[in-house]
TrEMBL record, chains A, B:
Pathway: Cofactor biosynthesis; adenosylcobalamin biosynthesis. The gene is cobJ. InterPro entries: 4pyrrol_Mease (IPR000878), 4pyrrol_Methylase_sf (IPR035996), 4pyrrole_Mease_sub1 (IPR014777), 4pyrrole_Mease_sub2 (IPR014776), Cbl_synth_CobJ/CibH_dom (IPR006363), Precorrin_MeTrfase (IPR051810). This is Precorrin-3B C(17)-methyltransferase. Gene3D superfamilies: Cobalt-precorrin-4 Transmethylase, Domain 1, Methyltransferase, Cobalt-precorrin-4 Transmethylase, Domain 2. One of its GO terms (biological process) is methylation. Its EC number is 2.1.1.131.
Amino acid sequence: MTGAVLIAGLGPGDAAMVTHEVTAALAQATDVVGYIPYVARVAPRPGLTLHPTDNRVELDRATHALELASAGARVVVVSSGDPGVFAMASAVFEALEARPDLADVPVTVLPGITAMLAAAAAAGAPLGHDFCAINLSDNLKPFALVEKRLRLAAQADFAMGFYNPRSKSRPHQFARVLEILREECAPTRLITFARAVSTPEQVLRTVTLAEATEDMADMRTVVLVGNSATRRVGPYVYTPRSA
Amino acid sequence: MTGAVLIAGLGPGDAAMVTHEVTAALAQATDVVGYIPYVARVAPRPGLTLHPTDNRVELDRATHALELASAGARVVVVSSGDPGVFAMASAVFEALEARPDLADVPVTVLPGITAMLAAAAAAGAPLGHDFCAINLSDNLKPFALVEKRLRLAAQADFAMGFYNPRSKSRPHQFARVLEILREECAPTRLITFARAVSTPEQVLRTVTLAEATEDMADMRTVVLVGNSATRRVGPYVYTPRSA
């Protein structure tokens, strides 16, 4: 049997939002590798070894997956959402680049429903026209780059999705993000705070930019900012196709 | 029985890339409404009425779905990819806004795998850091707005996904898009042309910006442009997490 690494997206939380190909990949895996809470979403069974690891060890985890596959295992690396969007896929390719001896391991990415698009669906269609996705964390890049992208995105009138808006170690940067948005956008701009999307704890809250405060976001929140044409209709928020 | 509209994403083409909740929604539908080739992906069965309609009648189709649901039907509006990304969700909310008499119809969006993210997964992880999505069609907006967003996105060093890059009625605008990219980005910038993603006709081709020509894109192509750090490792293209 030849080993392989499949990097699979589990979607934002609800098991019904997983694709059929990801379900099939998990059924055929010998090993599942990933961050503890994501591995906890995979049902144990005989013949399957679970390898849950802590946060912030993405590169070690990726290398471990490639090594297991190189020895013949059929490894599924699990990510929340879509592995290609601020998740494990880039880490696996970084590990592959650093380890030419593992270059023969076949790597396949199985997409999933990313949090931003699940949040948009729950709210209506706020990303219904041109949009961008920005990771607000400065763990791996300077915050000045976040600020620059944010300002240019506002000037381009993109709708926006923000990942990792705020954490215990970075409590104040999201206030700066709101400040930049206030410099670039009208106070009526609509912002949706989507917490724990698709789980039983889901909370959606849409406010204007004038009403938004930094404490509306936390680690489990995805933030959606409409473009200048985004509006409400009944309980929904949407961006028209012409904007 | 109370009617409802569910707007469901069928993913880019492969039936295995559909989510379990979309499969369940289709199994419970009384009516399926959508563009001819998307409705053709739903298996006929007794008790299910299929309503395939032509392209460019999105608003009529959306209104029809709301009217059917208002009369008690359980309607699934099918989109390719994700209904919230350049697809039917915004059209349904536009129709709802135009017809206050239909405001009581419950509308739910079921996300799907959008073409850009399926293409990224097939190529590796070229959208692995901050990125934007731009619909290049000027059917519903001025092309000047496309040009403006493109230029600002390049200046922000976003990776980019382009939908509807080129059609028979707009054969030359994609050449202008490449021209703007050449003004803003290095000639070594990687571009992936992903045609018919996840179908048996899938073709992926990655070239540098210097090598890219307008005829590499057509109606069935999604174009992915890396950011300045996007690179190749073996047969894969990816963007590191730090860029």
